[in-house]
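Sanity check

After download, print the first record. It should look like this:
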Amino acid sequence: MNNSSVCEIRVGFGRANIDPVEEVPLAGYSNPEARMSNTPLTPEDHLYATCVAFSDADGSTALVCTVDLACTETAWMPVLRKTMSEASGVSEDRIDISATHTHAGPATGITTAAEGTPYYHRYIAAFAAAAKQAVDDLSPAAIRVGDIQIPDMNHVRHYRRENGHINGANFESEGAGKWLPESVTDADEQLQIIRFVREGKKDIVLLNWQAHGTASSGSTDFGRAHKPYYSADFMGYCRNRLEEQTECLVAYYSGASGNILPYHLVKKHRDFEKCPESPMDHGARLAGFILPALETLKPVESSGPVKHARVIHAAPGKVDPTPVNIELDAISVGDSIGFVTAPCEMFDTNGMFVKENSPFQITFILTCANGHHKYFPSSAPYDYSALYGGPEPYEVRVSKVCQGTGEVVAQRMVDMLRELHG
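Expected structure tokens:
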């Protein structure tokens, strides 16, 4: 697929390993201290900090990064961006970092993986190395984009038991209640793809999909054991399979997946034929949908500029009236590609709103990005308790923000994209 035409946009790729050496707590469940590990789930399991650099004819450069962790740590961002900027020459305010949201990566910010620990320093150093590598790798690229529907692999997870409990968690017993109204609709199945075709170098493939990274810690026993092994989850296995079969460099970005689970982990839909249980098989199945799509992507305009915007949105607090300051970033690559970030777990309905209203031909939504403020549910779950009885859904209970914040943030993301496009 290589294209010999010289393009104004240049793209580069960098990656560095962030596997834990010492035992660290693993994120994604209520008690990280109970899952201490420095052991991979499989020998091919590795965690990476990945940076993709974009530069235009005027030398304006931005880094759009992803990391195999559950979230990005808010307190780490100033030092992380400063160190990456010093290593790469990219301005701190043009560096964005999102997480793949694996629930089997180190729990940053907690005890042995917290700020100032050996793992923290290795994490910072890895991102600096990946940022420099990406900038050094900048090469002219033609751009191809597309999207595909991935059936029977994820589902909205809200559920009400017969006792009235409204559950936002993964695992249900036999005979449990009924699906709530929001859950009878399908999850957002759209997976978006961007391929940067480079002459004489490996192509770079970016993926954006919405599904919780909970396959590796939830297999077989519905997650009750919360297995003590680190893993990049099905996202990593999908990446590995694609790189093996295409010789492309692949980066996975998690979309609006705050209410979305792998299909087989919702017991009502536990169908291993449609949705394999193991993270390895799950990732291989996802890669099986993506591989043929890589050959049918459509070319788009590959000239600049590369632009970046940032706003700090003060969201009303859910319990504490003090506003929660939320960083929202957007990056555009010409008039065809937009990236937009949110430091939270968005719900897919709000993510679909952003994509549908974006002026760009393809728009990546990067969640758990540049910090983490837990869940930003859509409005409907805030009313579940009043409508159906029982306690609040888990995502509402732990959220820091008021009802309606998810929709307001989605609209602000759209506004930023429109400003960049104009």
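If your output differs, re-run the checksum step. Summary of this record's structure: The CA atoms of residues 112 and 118 lie 8 Å apart.
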